[in-house]
Amino acid sequence: METLRNIMNPFCTFLFLGMLLHFASSMPRTKAVTHYHDFVVQATPVKRLCKTHNTITVNGMYPGPTLEVNNGDTLVVKVTNKARYNVTIHWHGVRQMRTGWADGPEFVTQCPIRPGGSYTYRFTIQGQEGTLWWHAHSSWLRATVYGALIIRPRLGESYPFPKPKRETPLLLGEWWDANPIDVVRQATRTGAAPNVSNAYTINGQPGDLYNCSKKDTVVVPVNSGETNLLRIINSALNQQLFFKIANHKLTVVGADASYLKPYTTSVLMLGPGQTTDVLITADQPPAKYYIAARAYASAQGAPFDNTTTTAILEYATAPCLAKCTSTKPVMPSLPAFNDTATATVFTKSLKSPRKVEVPTEIDENLFITVGLGLNNCPSGARRIMGIFVFECLPHEEEEEEEEEEEEEEIDFDICCADLFIMCYEIRIIIGTW
Ligand SMILES: [Cu+2]
Predict the structure, then answer these.
(1) Where is the signal peptide (predicted)?
(2) Which of 97, 230, 402, 431 allows an S-S link to 398, with CB 3.0 to 4.6 Å?
(3) Residue 231 alpha carbon to ligand 1 centre in Å
């Protein structure tokens, strides 16, 4: 018996472990979570550049709240509009698989949320990891109504790079020393280009180089030797921006919620709406270093805001900390505003981490998007809602002479992955034409 037990024991242990592993692998590996948030869009006094404006914000915050989720999670955001303007919120970069109506552009996927009204957005983040953001999608409210959306890997999974000690979102923005709605209204009225902004901002603050801004300059703390992740978002309205941190190299590891093949550089260029995730190692002598951004403006003769926004990267052991003014932070030398060569080197260096299979056989089908303003929004909204129709024309195989005939027989087979109901309506309308 003793001998048998000796044989059986390791066998049983092995069997037990095997069964345990089997059950573990058949169970869902992670639990997706639903995150509930309340966004109250409201006017809030915000003082910048020596003057206080009644700024439209979310929950009184400028920039607005940072949303943090894991890949696979669902967001439910109830937006209540207590401002005097129409508003919608767009989830910039979220793929909105089968939830096109949660995308947010007013008069396109929804009617605006009227003053006093509310709307609940519900969508799931699927297959995207990194940094995105959200912003208002009505008139120019997005000048101040925006915030970060951080998507971490599924629980139990990790980044494709060593885990950073800290993660800091840096939102680059544009500030008008005026009501942004008035700026765009004036442009529409006169037909001229809208006035350029008066400042750029990092996390809502213009920084040391602007009037009345020094004491509120954003400080990003670091410890010597640590590697941190910066999630940089260009939430400016219209401006492409160069971004640099004095004396530090940045390793780009992601952009627009996709991982990238790591690329080390000293300068970034972000178009409005784009995000870039970088790793930064605090490998310089303990001190204060400026984080700075300014315009990349390549259109000849077009006016642009030619100012520079700064924040401070501050080593914990720096001899002169934030409030101490005896030493100035080190300033990076930013590229010239029209340095297209630098911008191009940067954008060409963004590569996929692995080989991507793309279609190699390209057909000649046309892909046409049509917007039809057919659905009336409730009274008070001045415009009507646009609907997008995705139409695939048949492959153009016939000779030229037969083209006219072909046009008669166009097959209105509407290719729309997500908007079946909307397209069904359109199909009926087209059928009655
Ligand atoms: Cu956007």
Answers:
(1) 1-26
(2) 402
(3) 16
The pLDDT assigned to 391 comes to: 40
Q: Is the peptide bond before 28 cis (omega within 30 degrees of 0)?
A: no
Length of the chain: 433
E-strand ranges in 273-325 read 275-281, 288-295, 308-315
What strand order describes the sheet that includes 241-245?
A: 219-222, 308-315, 288-295, 241-245, 267-270
**pLDDT one-digit tens code per residue, 292-349:** 999 999 999 999 999 999 999 999 988 876 667 778 999 999 999 999 999 999 999 9
Contacts of 374 (CB under 8 A, 6+ apart): 384, 385, 387, 429
Distance 92 CA to ligand 1 centre (A): 4
Residue 5 C-alpha to ligand 1 middle, in angstroms? Answer: 67
Ordered structural domains, the chain, with CATH: 34-152 (2.60.40.420), 167-348 (2.60.40.420), 367-432 (no CATH)
Q: Give the tokens for residue 284.
A: 């310089």
CA of 273 to the centre of ligand 1 (A): 6
pTM for the model stands at: 0.81
Residues ≥6 apart with Cβ < 8 Å to 127: 71, 95
